[in-house]
Amino acid sequence: MDNKKDFKLNNEIEIRRKKAKIFLIINFVIFLISLALLVGVFYFISKSKNSSAKVSPIDISQEESGDTNNIGNYVARKIDGVMVPAGEANSFLMALMIDNHSDARPPSGLDKAHLVFEAEVEGGITRIMGVFSSGQNLDEMGPIRSARPYFIDWARELSALYAHVGGSPDALVKIQQDKILDINEFFNGKYFWRDNNKPMPHNVYTSSEKLEKYLNDKNADRNRFVPWFFKEDEKFEIRSESGSIKIDYRLGMYKVEWKYDQENNNYLRYVAGDPYRSKDGEVVSAKNILIQVASAIELDDKLRLEMDKIGYGESWVSMDWKCEPGIWEKKHPSDRTRFYGEDGRDAMFNAGMTWIQVVRPGIEYSYE
Known about the structure:
The protein is of the alpha+beta class. It is 21% helix and 29% strand. It contains four helices and 24 strands. The protein has helices spanning 2-52, 149-156, 169-177, 208-218; strands at 74-76, 83-85, 93-98, 115-120, 126-133, 161-164, 182-184, 193-194, 204-205, 229-231, 244-248, 256-261, 266-271, 274-275, 285-286, 288-293, 296-298, 305-307, 311-319, 322-330, 338-341, 348-350, 354-359, 364-367. A hairpin with a 6-residue loop joins strand 1 (74-76) and strand 2. The longest helix is centred in the N-terminal third of the chain and has 51 residues, at 2-52. The radius of gyration is 28 Å and the shape is globular.
């Protein structure tokens, strides 16, 4: 009797084990099916988003990789879409505050910038921030001037090294509070020099070699920013023979005109009616001209400004001799400023320098 009971008990245990094993297998299969469905849904959503965006021949919206926009051993540089040797697509960016006072002209190296911001500072004077990349080998860059808060946010959106000589009280506090990677000539004189042939304070210069040494000394991390979209130039046969863009900043010596060059499909810069040349004699040119309308208020008796660079507003995008209206948007100080057409899609730019003219409401601008 005991043997029969034992046999029956063992048989029940074995049956339970088999049921448990079957149950585990079924659950595992269900898990795999669920996982496959989840991955499929995610892939479908991602593909739908990608297919709805504009795609360009040199779309550089992805992180640098060995096969992104490859043409031989060349890839599209993230900041301006220009094809460069593999490994240079995401070189470290350096944003320099460049003096635009009439006594500071001509600037050094500005014609080699990838991206330029120009905006008013005090009393209708405009100042420039040129964005360069490591590896450019520029022997002289400047003259360098003082920091302003809104330029800091434009440098921040590119994770760029911000080079300046002092700054307004608000700007210097902002640099500390926002932990901006910056180099201030006041405390880092060995990375700059003064040209005694030019009047102070329009005589501070640096070089790409000195700034790269500073980056190495700081063990700085590489850039992290959202790139814009780039496209091929318009075909020559459908380009206009001429065209111009005018920005009437309040002071005559800062009034800007960009004249379209059909042959090179770019715009040549004129200031106060004269060609705007770099120190080497080259007329500064840009492939894309953006007008960004941003409100500003005067903060103190020195006429320093607080500018609305966060939010959205009116913009105009000019390239291939055409000017089209749109909007700009920047949701957070560290976000990249985006430019959209009237259809709500990201603007697509020609590869090369982009110059952003920031204007306050009331400053007239026109194109023809």
